[in-house]
UniProtKB/TrEMBL annotation:
<protein>
    <submittedName>
        <fullName>C4-dicarboxylate ABC transporter</fullName>
    </submittedName>
</protein>
<keyword id="KW-0732">Signal</keyword>
<dbReference type="InterPro" id="IPR018389">
    <property type="entry name" value="DctP_fam"/>
</dbReference>
<dbReference type="Pfam" id="PF03480">
    <property type="entry name" value="DctP"/>
</dbReference>
<dbReference type="InterPro" id="IPR006311">
    <property type="entry name" value="TAT_signal"/>
</dbReference>
<dbReference type="InterPro" id="IPR026289">
    <property type="entry name" value="SBP_TakP-like"/>
</dbReference>
<dbReference type="InterPro" id="IPR038404">
    <property type="entry name" value="TRAP_DctP_sf"/>
</dbReference>
Length: 371
């Protein structure tokens, strides 16, 4: 009987509450409201990419769109192209000091902060797109990346991948190692270190400044990404020779960096949502670059007379030897040494698999092709 009275009492209280709210919409809304309020967030994202750039710029916008959709409008990310809020190479500092909430860019732009950063974008003769995803997600790379970035007050996540890149655009043909001596080229990260080791001069220019530098003769050559993005920036108008393979960036991973205080203020659910949005864009971008590069390669060849070239074998061999030294020099001690060791171990493991899978398959596919 006591339990029955309690149940009846609870029921009458509910009826009483409903009756009291009848004719009072505000009170009815309060009663219907969930117990936990859902907070709205408005964040800003600075990028290293020129405004309207397909592929890279679009990836940053897709991260924003995915976060908005997955959060049902509760997390809004405003994207700023390079130079709109901060200069492209100042994105890292802006997020680290809290003047911006997030960045989208290439981690090798921050080599001055740590020589280990290029390992999370691309290093010469390093990992392909699939391999760097494997190392970061399953080979301990993310944990090391977290440790490195936390030193600067940042949480970093994979946020796009261009796949294999081209070697670059050159005003003159590269027929021997002698042609690299004195060559001035836009090439950042460890790829630039390799060029310097072979007698060239490397510059790290943001995307929006490359064409003018090529046009005015301040540089003799440039690399950027691949046919799709390179076409949009018009490099073919200034340098007729398009070289491959892109030894310096076999699978360039791009990053979303979040101010660490902002990241730690998020709920686990919000953090999971941000990660999922970035993973989605990472997946989409690789497929998009793979397809669009194929389309635009034909446009460059057929409509603009671009001449494809391959680096001579002796040049490739010298680049590979210099690349091994450059990679090792970047990981001499501290966390840089641990990141280098982890990367090299992962690369060795996955190279053995690629040697019996992708490589032989590509060769077999070409052997069996009727074209």
């Amino acid at each position: 009987m006591i339990r029955r009275r309690n149940l009846l009492g609870a029921g009458l209280l509910g009826i009483g509450g409903a009756a009291a709210s009848f004719g009072n919409p505000q009170k009815a809304a309060d009663l219907a409201a969930p117990a936990i309020s859902r907070n709205r967030r408005r964040l800003n994202m600075v990028t290293t990419w020129p405004k309207g750039l397909p592929g890279l710029g679009r990836a940053a916008e897709r991260v924003s769109e995915s976060i908005l959709a997955m959060s049902e409008g509760l997390i809004e990310v405003k994207v700023y192209a390079a130079g709109e809020l901060v200069p492209p190479f100042e994105c890292f500092d802006a997020v680290a000091n809290g003047s911006a909430d997030m960045y989208h860019g290439a981690e090798y732009y921050w080599t001055a902060k740590s020589t280990a950063y290029p390992f999370f974008t691309a290093v010469p003769f390093g990992m392909t797109a699939q391999e760097i995803m494997g190392w970061i997600d399953f080979g301990g790379g993310q944990e090391l990346w977290d440790e490195l970035s936390a030193q600067f007050g940042i949480k970093a996540i994979q946020g796009a991948n261009t796949g294999h890149q081209m070697g670059g655009w050159f005003r003159k043909e590269i027929n021997s190692l002698d042609d690299l001596i004195g060559l001035q080229m836009r090439i950042p990260g460890q790829g630039g270190d390799v060029l310097r080791a072979l007698g060239g001069s490397a510059k790290a220019l943001p995307g929006g400044e490359i064409y003018q530098a090529l046009q005015t003769g301040n540089i003799d050559a440039t690399e950027w990404v691949g046919p799709w993005n390179d076409y949009s920036l018009g490099f073919y108008r200034e340098a007729p020779y398009y070289y491959g393979p892109g030894f310096h960036e076999p699978g360039a991973s791009l990053a979303v960096g979040v101010n660490l205080k902002v990241w730690e203020s998020m709920t686990p659910g919000e953090q999971a949502l941000i990660k999922a949005a970035c993973q989605s864009v990472n997946h989409l971008s690789l497929g998009e670059f793979t397809y669009q590069n194929a389309v635009y390669l034909n446009i460059l060849k057929d409509d603009h007379g671009v001449q494809l070239r391959s680096f001579p074998d002796d040049v490739v061999k010298a680049m590979a030897e210099a690349a091994a030294d450059v990679r090792a020099a970047s990981g001499r001690d501290g966390i840089e040494k641990r990141i280098y060791a982890s990367f090299e171990a992962g690369l060795k493991t996955m190279r053995e698999w690629a040697a019996v899978s992708d490589g032989p398959y590509y060769a077999a596919r070409e052997l069996g092709s009727s074209e």
